[in-house]
Amino acid sequence: MSPCVPCRADRREDETIDELLTTEEAAAELRVSQKTVLRLIRSGDLRAQKVGRSWRIRRHDLPCVAGETDAGSDAIYLDDNASNPLHPAVLRLMSELWAGPIGNASSTHEIGARSRAIIEDAREGVAGLLQARSNEVVFTSGATEANNLVLRGFRFAGKRLLVSAGDHASVRHVAQAMSGDVPHSVVPLNREGVVDLDTLASMLAAKDVALVSIVAANSETGVLNPIPDVAELVHAAGAVLHCDATQWIGRLAFSMEELGADAVSLSGHKMSGPQGVGALVARRSILRALAPQAVGGGHEDGIRSGSYNVVGIAALGAAAALAADPLVADQTCRVRDRLIDGLSKAGGTAVNGIGADRLPNTANVRFAGAPGDAVLARCRGVAASLGSACHAGTIEPSPTLLAMGLSRDEAEESIRFSVTRFTTLRDVDVAAARIARAVAAIRALEEVA
Ligand code: PMP
Fold it and tell me: Among 45, 284, 385, 397, whose Cα sits 20 to 30 Å from the Cα of 361?
């Protein structure tokens, strides 16, 4: 193991706190087994004090991998699927608008009227991106709200709901929450992470389903679902298709008409726009029948009340004009593939969902024998994500990866890398080398445990 070099953050902490940890706590911090911690103590690599039958360890004695842990804000950002960097043109527009006055878009004076015009321009921009009509766009605070609005507001009239195992929590958890009133079933994924069309067809056979919600592109693997095939099955069964296209829109073209989606959710910060704004885009007949979830001043035709987020909506419109550029898709794909090549030098790697069509920027990579949380804890010089959800302080392996048939261990050894439109080849070369070193360090610890 490399010499025990306290990282800068730990040294600072040491000046104020001399915190003692148990071996169990140290194991949790290091993200290794307790057995590994005891081995490190016995070999002299980790300083500890024997108190009775147990060991006490000072926090600042915990080992770090030198040069990797204190990269701080210089970290290479490979977490585009969590939130995209704002496009400079969008930022410029937002700064100009914030300089104001913005007013309230419902006010009758000229400033209010100008804000209304800004909103209507943005509405046309978003509709144009999806080849929808502008009266089919309902602005929301993001995709979570759009998913909630369409699922909770839909009139099921005694019929069922289907969601996919690869859907975002804002669909799966809503379906669960509604299950007392609306029965639902979960469409499974195949080994590549694509919805299983045969099972979907059999779930639709009884023609007792009103709404099917299928994620267009999975946020963790980037795997794309075959939306036209899904739409054909759904429509043949007389049901409505909602697609959470949050990760797709912005990166690839999404025509509602061509793909056959009846309702679509999208989010500003997944298309180089700001956080806190998004939209539900749906056929008028669906919107007219929706039960509003936010009732108030009657904004958005009474479907979603609340004062307009004028600057956010304007930014969403500007982002729509920049979205789905095929040149950006080609470039991110080249950078992403170079990252995969670099990461493969770590050995024992596998790309989850490799056999399926995927977003051009996403690589969900498994490093056999190296838990992903431990790798990322060692390698703060790279900002990437575990394919996992953190609930109440416990890390659960990614439901998507489990639904694809990965074991719990395999899911926990997986990391999601997602390159941005600004990520360079050099960035991914450096990031891959850092990750490979961290993987080697973790494997060395795991082997001796
Ligand atoms: N759906 C998908 C597929 C997502 O990836 C996300 C964001 N992680 C959401 C919905 C939620 O989007 P928002 O942050 O706008 O609420």
Answer: 397
